[in-house]
Write a structure and sequence with these properties.
By secondary structure, this protein is of the alpha+beta class. It folds into three domains: 145 residues, Beta-Lactamase, CATH 3.30.450.20; 89 residues, Signal transduction histidine kinase, dimerisation/phosphotransfer (DHp) domain (Helix Hairpins); 157 residues, Histidine kinase-like ATPase, C-terminal domain (Heat Shock Protein 90). Helix content is 56%, strand content 20%. The chain binds adenosine-5'-diphosphate. The site of adenosine-5'-diphosphate has 19 residues, from helix 11 and helix 13.
Length: 462
């Protein structure tokens, strides 16, 4: 509205108040330009050409021109201006020539009122040739047509336009305010709610694209904040819950050693063994939590390197040799043709390790675990199979979730409920497919596929 008012103030000033001034100034400018042209051409151009030029200048600029010789005899007369005072007035030429000579042959500018039509006129006069011995004189006259009627027409027009535009400006500002200010106001309010911790706030991005973008960005920020918040809460709740059990056991067994079994080496060792196992469990849990939180924070970057997948699988399996021999587990490895893969070896090792570890923990009475490398055109599939109870259909979706542990898991199975979450996070980071096939009573097959873009033949690599 302010801008519209400013535009109209300027329009009124220039069109109404200053119009007359502008008009007479532009007339004076025309006369001045015509005089310069005539002075230049006088005595230079041939007579007929000079006369044509005068006629052209006079008609184009609405002027009345008189050129006389040094004795005041008319040489050229061009009369185009209405109400000429040079030719209209008796002895007009003589009178103004006298004014020039009285002025020492220097140019004169006069604004004269024409008594015939009561109009103002501008008169310019100067000597031609040298000032001391002029070869002639030039007189130019033009009428200043009154602009009063024009001004009153413009005034009325402007009044209409002002009215229309002020109403328009009012509605446009209302519309713009509605489309920009209102949504931004509501977004600000929502952002304040978000800052207070309300993650269900809706960012309403109606209106312009930029406002929509702002709302989308804030919605995204809200989602991320809410995710981090939930993760933090989960972590604290689960960690404190999971830490409590081993800590209670540690305390209980330490007290038992102090009060009861301190002097009984057999019992004491038994209790100490439990304390050591629980401590292992604790450190495993803390390590898993740290690994997973690093992976999930998105800060963890992959450091890919090349290695032989068959060799790596054998090496990991051999790490389970101790437990296999001690507890009677058999891990059967079916390799395929050796391939070089390029991925984050440490993290993929952890995936394989976690899967074999789970297979050992959950396999059946026969204590058999099968590890297979299957080369396919679209990548290398690694399968880890056990002969355990299998997983119910509806639980398969949950097992990769953080802290999920089946209710019927045996406590002697050392686990944190984080193993598969780590597997999932690593494989997702690599963009590798993974999954489970399971049949109740027959066991499960956990698999993942190293995509073909990360696989090369051994001979190619050499
Ligand atoms: P943890 O093994 O520490 O409990 P995981 O994340 O590795 O945690 O596994 C989550 C759950 O998935 C386990 O508690 C178990 O119920 C189920 N699970 C994992 N591997 C197997 C398997 N090979 N056979 C049957 N159930 C499994």
């Amino acid at each position: 509205m302010g801008f519209t008012v400013l535009v109209f103030v300027l329009l009124w000033l220039f069109q109404i108040l200053f119009l007359e001034k502008f008009y007479s100034q532009s007339k004076i400018h025309d006369v001045d330009a015509a005089a310069t042209q005539i002075i230049k051409s006088f005595d230079v151009d041939p007579k007929s050409e000079f006369s044509d030029k005068l006629a052209k200048i006079a008609s184009e600029n609405d002027l009345c021109i008189e050129v006389v010789d040094r004795y005041g005899r008319s040489l050229y007369t061009k009369e185009y201006s209405v109400g000429c005072i040079i030719h209209g007035k008796e002895n007009g030429t003589y009178y103004y020539l006298k004014r020039i000579t009285d002025n020492g042959n220097k140019p004169i500018w006069l604004k004269v009122n024409n008594p015939n039509n009561n109009c103002s006129t501008v008169l310019y006069g100067c000597s031609l040739g040298s000032q001391d011995f002029p070869s002639g004189y030039l007189l130019i006259n033009t009428a200043l047509v009154p602009v009063g009627s024009t001004v009153s027409i413009i005034k009325r027009q402007l009044m209409f336009i002002t009215g229309i535009l002020i109403v328009l400006a009012f509605f446009i500002s209302l519309f713009v305010a509605k489309r920009i200010a209102k949504p931004i106001d509501s977004i600000t309010e929502a952002a304040e709610n978000l800052a207070k911790g309300d993650f269900n706030t809706k960012f309403d991005g109606r209106g312009f694209l930029e406002v929509k973008k702002l709302a989308d960005t804030l919605t995204y920020a809200e989602k991320e904040l809410s995710r981090v918040d939930t993760m933090q809460r989960d972590l604290i709740a689960n960690v404190s819950h999971d830490l409590r059990t081993p800590l209670t056991m540690l305390k209980a067994y330490a007290e038992m050693i102090r009060d009861l079994s301190g002097n009984n080496p057999v019992k004491r060792n038994e209790h100490l063994e439990i304390i050591i196992n629980e401590t292992d469990r604790l450190s495993l849990m803390v390590n898993d939590i740290l690994d997973l939180s690093k992976l999930e924070s998105g800060k963890q970057k992959l450091t890919p390197s090349e290695f032989r997948i068959g060799e790596k699988l054998s090496e990991i399996i051999s790490r389970f040799k101790g437990i296999s021999e001690k507890m009677g587990y058999s891990i059967h490895f079916t390799p395929d043709e050796e391939k070089i893969v390029c991925c984050d070896v440490v993290k993929i090792e952890q995936v394989i390790y976690n899967l074999i570890n789970n297979a050992i923990n959950y396999t059946g009475e026969d204590k058999q675990v099968f590890v297979r490398q299957i080369n396919r055109p679209d990548g290398i599939v690694i399968e880890i199979q056990d002969t355990g109870d299998g997983i119910e259909e509806d639980k398969i979706k949950l097992i990769f979730d953080k802290y999920y542990r089946s209710e019927n898991h045996k406590r002697e199975v050392v686990g944190t409920g984080l193993g598969l979450s780590i597997v999932k996070a690593v494989l997702k980071l690599h963009n590798y497919d993974y999954g489970v096939r399971s049949k109740l009573g027959e066991g499960s097959v956990f698999w993942f596929k190293i995509s073909s873009k990360d696989v090369t033949d051994v001979q190619d690599a050499q």
